[in-house]
Fold this sequence. Notes:
With 634 residues, the protein is mainly beta. Helix content is 13%, strand content 40%. The chain folds into seven domains: 2-82, Immunoglobulin-like; 94-192, Immunoglobulins (Immunoglobulin-like, Sandwich); 195-263, Sandwich (Immunoglobulin-like); 269-335, Immunoglobulin-like; 341-410, Immunoglobulins (Immunoglobulin-like), CATH 2.60.40; 420-489, Immunoglobulin-like, CATH 2.60.40; 521-633, no CATH class.
Amino acid sequence: MLKRYVEDPDDDIIRCRWATGYDECGSICHKFSATLDENACKINYQASSIGWFAVALMIEDFSTSRPTTPLSKIPLQFLVVVFNSSGSCDTVPQFVNPTPGDGTSINVPLNETYFMQIVVYIENANKENVFIDTVSPLGFLKSKVGELDGRPYYFYVNISWEPQSDQLGDNIFCFEASGGTGFVLNRSLYKIAPVINCTIDQITSIIPLVYYSQPIAVDDLSETTVDCFPVSGSRFSIGSTTVACTSRDGANNTASCSFSVNVSSEVPNIVCPEGHLYNSPEYVRFNVSATDKEGDVDITCDHLTGSLFNDTTLVTCVATDTTGNRANCSFIVTIDTEPPVIMCHEDKIISTEPYVKYTKPTATDNYSSNPTVSCHPESGSVFPIGDTRVVCTAIDEVNNDASCSFLVTVTNYIDVFPPSITCPMNIVSKSQSPEWVIPEATDDQTQSPLVKCSKSPSQEYPIGSVNEITCTTSDDAGNGASCTFTISIESETATKIKNITQEVTEENVEDVSQELDQYLEEVDVLEPVDVVVTSVALENIISLGSTNENVTDAVVSIVDEVVGITELKVPPQTTASILNSFEGQVDVIANSGMNYTQVEENIAVQTLNLHSNAIESSLKFVVAENSTCLLYTS
Length: 634
């Protein structure tokens, strides 16, 4: 079988027939005894003798409207040689990559050089008997046949072509390979694309709505269309966007060019709220704001504020300014109906002591990163003998909760721990019957131990008195505990002392201390409460660490006035506080290196800054009779 490949640029109907008459075939008419398939242009021949045989054909094209009258015709004449061969006719050359496939349509730009390589595999062939023949448009260049390095039986030719303007449209290129005992034919269709020119490289705009002129396309054979995307008049994003334009001619050949659109205008500033979290479907109100330097801003959201949200939903809002610039933001409305996941670490804890510590469980949640976990009784609590169930609960941000529990078993043990009791703070009151509550006691074994106090909360006290109240308790095992506090009923003198010293600073400490000293000298009688309030005032003065000599004089004088009243019954801690304040102020003076001497009715103070040799001499210190003397050396 011999097949002749024929093509028509206009896609007309093509038929092959035997040439007839002297004008068409001369002396070779009907010299080849074979059958012809006119529509497929196939010749079927059964060789019966060897030799050369001439073949004469006419190729004709027909329009679809008149399929019997040929539009044109061309002769095709060739020779067929029949010979004896020892090889197999089944060995057929094979075109391989990168050879274009049969019937491939290739777009070739005008006035640009196109390169192609045709590669064929022919088993057991050598370069000398391999032929790659071509039928091509004007201007095709073909190299000699070569063999690929390192690949035996792979043969190639290189093709190059620079189409000219008069070749616009479809151009048929056929090639065949032969060698060994067979041949193969292939063909490709080269299409010359139209010429398109984007006249600019870039468009710059301050608004996103951009219009531009369509590029111009040229084709010598047919009208062209030009399509660009994004189209002119589109809304472009802020920044650079590439516009791609494609031209298409009547033969469906295409060409492209592109340019960029750069939008430099500023977008509005839009602010969305933080995400909303609920544990059930909810009507949610939210506020989205936006500003823009160019004026008013229109805000639209894909869900309206006040809408009912049944599921977790992403809400997106868009702000558009007066020039069409847009900005968007998003937030999530979360409907969380799932409780946290909590797992207790153990099922049971056995302890021989009532104070039991355990590890608090951890919890996870689908939305809350750290669910709150609380247990009751708490770790470190006092547990009674026997079994106590500890219940731990995890709560997420929207109050979904989950719980787990475990047992704490406390075995029998000897109770040697006393109850715990804490009295109220010391009370200074103008009321003669100030309010206070009998303290409660706790115990590891005895539930709510009984508490007794030396005075009742309803008792009335005289003005100026300082009253000590002691509260005691004991558990069932006889372990006892107590605490003490004082109730002082404020006098007019105590109120005055508090007013003088209510605000002591480094700037006014000299004035305050001297004013307090002068006032106490004028008081005829001091009540116990006055001494208590004075002790607090001295603590405030001494805390400033003043080295002012006048401050020290006032402190020594104040202490002399209160410690000389031996008949007053004041709490021991009050007396200790006064003496500590006195020694603290003298320490400040002594450590500053000052030689200081002060003699009062009940107290005398002297500080000396001595050389070490003086201590070894026969220096004597004389102390006045009935006086308390403090001697400081440095």
